[in-house]
């Protein structure tokens, strides 16, 4: 909030999003803005459209109606090639249900975005090890996702989302499988990293302990978004 009381132009803006799956209306006119460097919590009951909103904002799902603007670009209108480039270079995504690559070890999963960006294997591995360390799972570097606990897999997925230094991180229930102490450790690491790099974070959570780390919280109900108020 600046001194005139006006908000800066958001980095990412969704307006009046509509998305229907068969007879299920996941989004019914959802609007939300995310500022550069802002940590925004999205809460709401199960089925209210939180994950669908995140997928539309991250350019993974195209809305049926409404717009998603990122910088000067309309994500809802971009060709798939440019969308995937944006996802690779500017966005980091942690999906609600993990989506680590099952055949790869933790360190290989985390190193993958750097290998795709052209880093050498040795450099990518070194950096991946450092990121696993930040999230307290360096000891699991050699394990495959099937050999990790849910919480260890979530931390590995967070490390993978952050390793490229994205402008925006989309995290769908990133602490859903963690106990309260581990939640605190992971949120501290996530917030610290985001603040240090000026990363904006869209954080879906049903946990008030997690929402308290955000600058702002909005709540979804029936496919639409309502403000909750400033929490920090
Ligand atoms: N790929 C899909 N195919 C069919 N229906 C879907 C799909 N994705 C979402 N839906 C439906 O859209 C609605 C919103 O789903 P969404 O996953 O966005 O909710 P959510 O708020 O993330 O819920 P939760 O808290 O349980 O994760 C639900 O009724 C869901 O069944
Ligand atoms: Mg969800």
From TrEMBL:
InterPro entries: AAA+_ATPase, ABC_transporter-like_ATP-bd, ABC_transpr_LolD-like, MacB-like_ATP-bd, P-loop_NTPase. One of its GO terms (molecular function) is ATP binding. Residues 12-232 form the ABC transporter domain. It comes from the Bacteria. Keywords: ATP-binding, Nucleotide-binding, Transport. Pfam families: ABC_tran. PANTHER family: ABC TRANSPORTER RELATED, IMPORT ATP-BINDING PROTEIN. This is ABC transporter ATP-binding protein. The lineage of its organism: Bacteria, Bacillati, Actinomycetota, Actinomycetes, Kitasatosporales.
């Amino acid at each position: 909030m600046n001194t005139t009381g006006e908000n800066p132009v958001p980095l990412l803006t969704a307006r009046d999003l509509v998305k229907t799956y068969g007879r299920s209306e996941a989004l019914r006119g959802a609007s939300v803005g995310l500022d550069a460097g802002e940590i925004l919590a999205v809460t709401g009951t199960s089925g209210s459209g939180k994950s669908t909103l995140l997928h539309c904002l991250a350019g993974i799902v195209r809305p049926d109606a409404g717009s998603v603007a990122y910088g000067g670009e309309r994500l809802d209108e971009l060709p798939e090639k440019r969308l995937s480039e944006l996802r690779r270079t500017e966005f980091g995504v942690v999906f609600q249900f993990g989506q680590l690559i099952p055949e790869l070890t933790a360190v290989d999963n985390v190193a993958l975005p750097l290998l795709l960006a052209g880093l050498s294997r040795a450099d990518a591995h070194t950096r991946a090890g450092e990121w696993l360390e930040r999230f307290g799972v360096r000891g699991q570097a050699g394990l495959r996702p099937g050999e990790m606990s849910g919480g260890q897999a979530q931390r590995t997925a967070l490390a993978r989302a952050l390793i490229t230094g994205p402008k925006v991180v989309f995290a769908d229930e990133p602490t859903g499988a963690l106990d309260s102490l581990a939640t605190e450790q992971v949120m501290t690491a996530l917030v610290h990293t985001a603040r240090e790099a000026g990363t904006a974070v869209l954080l879906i959570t049903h946990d008030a302990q997690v929402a308290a780390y955000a600058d702002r919280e909005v709540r979804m109900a029936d496919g639409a978004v309502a403000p909750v108020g400033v929490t920090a």
